[in-house]
Predict the structure of HTH tetR-type domain-containing protein.
Amino acid sequence: MTSDSSPARVLDVATRLFSELGYDGTSTRMIAEAAGLDLATVAHHVGGKRDLYLAVMERAHRAERAALEHALAGFTPDAAGVHRLVDGYLDFCVEHPEVPALWMHRWLSDAADVAHLENVYVRPMLDLVAEAVRPAVGDGTDLEYALMTVIWCTHGFSRGGVLDAGGRRVGVDDPRQLARFRAHLHRLVGQLLDLPWPSALRRRSPL
């Protein structure tokens, strides 16, 4: 829900536009107009476009970090724990589609002049997950690539979905497609990390 206060409203609008159009495709004027404010008011509350982008990315990171820490609080270093962690990450991306969208724009060299965010935000979370998951996987597993594969697939599905028989994109808004992707993701993780596929998920699979 968008807040009534001007700074929060600007941040909400900027998040939506940066996630839809990217940093390079969004102007401060566009943000101001969408928020129903003038440029001077936006500048007063949040500064320039770069300042606003940093605030958007920090808020997105805080939400993702909080979800990760919550998931890791009950983590068990076994197959079931890994699969629950995968579910938690997918659920976060479904509930906060703006977060994978923001990072996917960066994959395409958006906001190239803001180059430090991956080291500040992404790398520490990858290291945190790797440390938790490593005891559950074999020594020969390329854990970094396995973790990145989950991210690539989940972000891609959350933004692009799959094509139905008529060539239309369907994805997270379609419960059946979401269930299919969840089952597929668990199979993929199981193969990458040599883990069994949980029987509970096998019973839920629509396939």
